[in-house]
Amino acid sequence: MLAALCRAGDLATARRLFDGMRAGEQGGEAGAFPNVVAYTTMIRACCASRLADEALSLFKMMLADGVRPNRITYNTMVQGFCQAGRMEPVKEVFGMDSFKRDTCTFNTLMAAHCREGRIQDAKKVFDQMMELRVRRDSASYSIVTRALCENGEFGRAEELVDSLLEKEVLKKRGGCVPLIASYNPVFKYFCENGKAKKARLLFGQLLDIRSKVDFLAFNTTGINLFAECRKHSAKP
């Protein structure tokens, strides 16, 4: 019931139901009481409605009630505050000993830094993943690579692509699958600088993992890519 109300966007009714559950528990009445799923559902709904302060209040209430957050709760908080541009609460959540940060957590934080133009901060988070032995998936690479290209740091972007290809990250299962458009600035850079072979290698690996999804879009990108490479290779 609570989840259905939240999905319908009826946050006011959901909150009354939630508060009623808490009141029943505190009054010693038998029945449902807010567990980690209920708290996380409410927190996610608040984040989706851009009610960051309300989400933080629920999170603190959760801790006070002795309900232990799980990884989904923490990642929901991080994502919600990142989307709201509230980085201080994100740092607070990150610093909690009980928070086992995963690939999704770091990708969310990197994407937030990139949206705000904090490219170096995003790169630091990317490097921190290796230090903490958190797996970097294809999305981790695409987020930072695109940001570096948009910032004109093509040399550093190429180093990341070299690492991605060498470690065959795109061939590993699990994690997020990046959109091929994420690498368009890299393709353009490679083609304009006589590195068509590397462009084809990257495109081929991307095509392998997404060939069953939107194949027409991939064909269009591939045609444009190789046309661009031929154009630049034909220059005297």
UniProtKB/TrEMBL annotation:
Query: Where does each PPR repeat begin and end?
Result: 35-69, 70-101, 102-136, 137-171
Please name the Gene3D superfamilies in this protein's record.
Tetratricopeptide repeat domain
Q: What is the lineage of its organism?
A: Eukaryota, Viridiplantae, Streptophyta, Embryophyta, Tracheophyta
Entry keyword set? Repeat, Transit peptide
Query: In which domain of life is the source organism classified?
Result: Eukaryota
Q: Which organism is it from?
A: Zea mays
Q: Name one Pfam family in it.
A: PPR
Where do transmembrane segments lie in this chain? none
Query: Is rRNA-binding given among the entry's keywords?
Result: no
> What is the protein's name according to its record?
Pentatricopeptide repeat-containing protein
Report the PROSITE patterns cross-referenced here.
PPR
